[in-house]
Amino acid sequence: MSTFFKKAMLYLGLGSDEDFLGMDPQGPKERPNEGGVIVNPNTEGNTNVKPITRDTGGVKAGREAVTVTTVPKRKFVKPHIVTPILFAEVKEISEAARRSQPVIVNLQQAEHEVAVRIIDFCSGLKMGIDGSFEKAGSDVFLLTPKDVEVSEDEKRKLAATGSGSL
Predict the structure, then answer these.
(1) Separation of alpha carbons 82 and 91, rounded Å
(2) Residue 105, by phi and psi: left (phi above 0), alpha (psi -120 to 50) or beta?
(3) What span, in angstroms and rounded, lies between the C-alpha atoms of 103 and 78?
(4) β-pairing, 148-149 with 140-144?
(5) Does residue 164 surpass a pLDDT of 60?
(6) Rounded distance, CA 125 to CA 90, Å?
(7) In 40, 68, 147, 150, which residue has its Cα 20 to 30 A from 57's Cα atom?
(8) Which pairs with CB-CB distance under 8 Å and at least 24 residues apart come from 133-140?
(9) Is the Cβ–Cβ distance between 150 and 102 less than 8 Å?
């Protein structure tokens, strides 16, 4: 049984250096030439390879290389309207934002302390979704996720009513 553990330790490289002295080194094995292909390593002067140079042949090169990035297409989505009274209702705001849907947060009916907490929450949520959070009216705010845009018509309606009732 001890030889089994000794062999396992040697295999894993956990044995002492003395155990490795009697082993044959495992180098690359020679393979016999099996195919009819003969490789001539001495190919000096016998190549058809042409070196690549930066010669433009007298033609002036055009503009320098420019990196082009594509801008993702912005979605136009109708906003979700939330009128929270309690702070516990911010879950509805975050779920709509997670669905990449803009959220109108109407805080006109909320108490001042609750409204401040909700605004703080929405500000943090804005950072998390890399979106925007802007005031749209009196105690009405618009939270917009990244790559989502509310149409100008919807924004005008929101600003005109000031209540978030689109």
Answers:
(1) 10
(2) beta
(3) 9
(4) unpaired
(5) no
(6) 10
(7) 68
(8) 136/104, 136/162, 136/164, 137/161, 137/162, 137/163, 137/164, 138/108, 138/162, 139/106, 139/107, 139/108, 139/110, 139/115, 140/104, 140/105, 140/106, 140/107, 140/108, 140/164
(9) yes
Sign of the alpha-carbon dihedral angle for 48, 53, 59, 64: positive
Work out whether strand 148-149 and strand 75-76 pair parallel, antiparallel, or are unpaired: parallel
Contacts of 115 (CB under 8 A, 6+ apart): 107, 139
Q: Could you give the 3-state DSSP secondary structure of residue 102? A: coil
**What pLDDT digit, counting tens, does each position of 51-91 carry?**
676 665 655 555 566 666 655 555 566 788 889 899 888 89
Which pTM was predicted?
0.49
H or E element: which one contains 157?
Answer: helix 152-161
Distances in whole angstroms, Cα of residue 35 to Cα of each of 30, 38, 109, 150: 15, 8, 87, 70
Integer Cα distance of 40 and 50 in angstroms? 20
Domain boundaries, the chain: 75-161
Least confident residue range of 14-18, 74-78, 126-130, 143-147: 74-78
Amino acid (one-letter) located at 137 = G
Residue with tokens 């000096």: 44
Which is the CATH superfamily of the domain at 75-161? SepF-like protein (3.30.110.150)
